[in-house]
Amino acid sequence: MTGPKTSVDRLGRLLNLVPYLLARPGILVSEAAADQGVSEKQLREDLELLWVCGLPGYGPGDLIDMALDGDRVTISHDAGIDRPLRLTQDEALALVVALRMLAETPGTGTRDVIERALAKIENAAGDLADAPVAVKLPANAEKLDRIRAAVEGGHALEITYYTAARDETTSRIIDPMRVLMVGGRAYLEAWCRRAEATRMFRVDRIDAFAALPERSSPPPSARPQDVTEGVFRPTPDLPLVTMRVGRHSRWITEYYPVEEVRRDGPGEEWVVTMRVTDLGWAQRLLLGLGPDVTVVGPPELLDRIRAQAAAALDQYSSPAR
């Protein structure tokens, strides 16, 4: 059975299809489909999509045009897709800076490939590649290098780790699995013997670590986490926090994963619901936002915030010693 596996496969085929058809005017659809490794039905769907592709403006002369006469197809206007891609100065500089940063990021396993791509872009960019742009890594780059070396050594680690959700620092023994970058932050993924589960440890929150004599040995049940959509993956079993958010605190809907955002009446307040791993973390976050946020639920969180607010007021009412 033939056919595309992913949208990436289809994109690559569409990009190749125009120059292929330009070189073979009047080719049979069945023959073109066989050459492309797809069914005739799929090729006709690709041709229909090409009909609405082209250059910005999307008017006459901007879109790809073709003649589909029964079983034969001919490209009559290629909309410039047969010409090689030319990067603008801004695009070339952005690629150079991004690749330089990637090449300097510890833990990148394809550094040689990145450097070859960077060399090609810099060569094509000419003098632009020498623009005075500084590429600076985060301050914990040296720590990340040392952690990566420790992980590659294959030993279990004892770490001192700060957990922001519970505002506590703990010591634990872990079996490292990999070092990775997610959302611009470095993480050490490992089997935590204390939690008896796979955990993601932010490198900047590892206060200290030491390699142990024993080898790292994650159990067979330890599996790398899918981080394509981020490190935090809300699940239905986590506490659901509901709050009314004023205009100046709406940024939390972009900074944190939220389940729902809706307007609350004619005013500027939004009703926001979000899952959290720990109510203590939510308590500190919401108290820090001040009067611009009103907590609706759950009741346990409301009680905790009231108690902490009352304790703070008591401090003001107590005479100074």
Task: Briefly summarize what is shown.
By secondary structure, this protein is of the alpha+beta class. It has helices at residues 7-22, 29-36, 40-50, 89-104, 111-125, 141-152, 252-255, 279-289, 299-317; strands at 27-28, 65-69, 72-77, 155-163, 168-182, 185-192, 197-202, 206-215, 240-245, 260-263, 270-275, 293-297.
What does this structure look like?
This is Protein pafC. Residues 9-122 form the PafC HTH domain. Residues 212-233 are annotated as: Disordered. By secondary structure, the protein is an alpha+beta fold. It has four domains: 7-77, Arc Repressor Mutant, subunit A (Orthogonal Bundle), CATH 1.10.10.10; 89-130, no CATH class; 141-215, Roll (SH3 type barrels), CATH 2.30.30; 240-317, Alpha-Beta Plaits, CATH 3.30.70. Helices cover 35% and strands 26% of the residues. It has nine helices and twelve strands. Helix 2 crosses helix 3 and helix 4 (89-104) runs antiparallel to helix 5. The longest helix has 19 residues, at 299-317. It is extended. 15% of the residues are buried. The model has no long low-confidence stretch (mean pLDDT 78).
Question: How helix-rich are the residues, as a percent range?
Answer: 25-40%
Strand/helix succession: HEHHEEHHHEEEEEEHEEHEH
Query: What is the CATH T-level topology of the largest domain?
Result: Alpha-Beta Plaits
Q: The biggest beta sheet, please?
A: 5 strands, antiparallel
- The level 1 CATH classification of the largest domain is Alpha Beta
Structural class: alpha+beta
Order of strands side by side in the largest beta sheet? 7-6-5-4-8
- pLDDT average, as an integer? 78
First-last Cα distance: 83 Å
Can you count the beta strands? 12
User: What would CATH call the architecture of the largest domain?
Assistant: 2-Layer Sandwich
Domain WCX: 247-313
Domain WYL: 143-208
Region (Disordered): 212-233
Organism: Paractinoplanes durhamensis
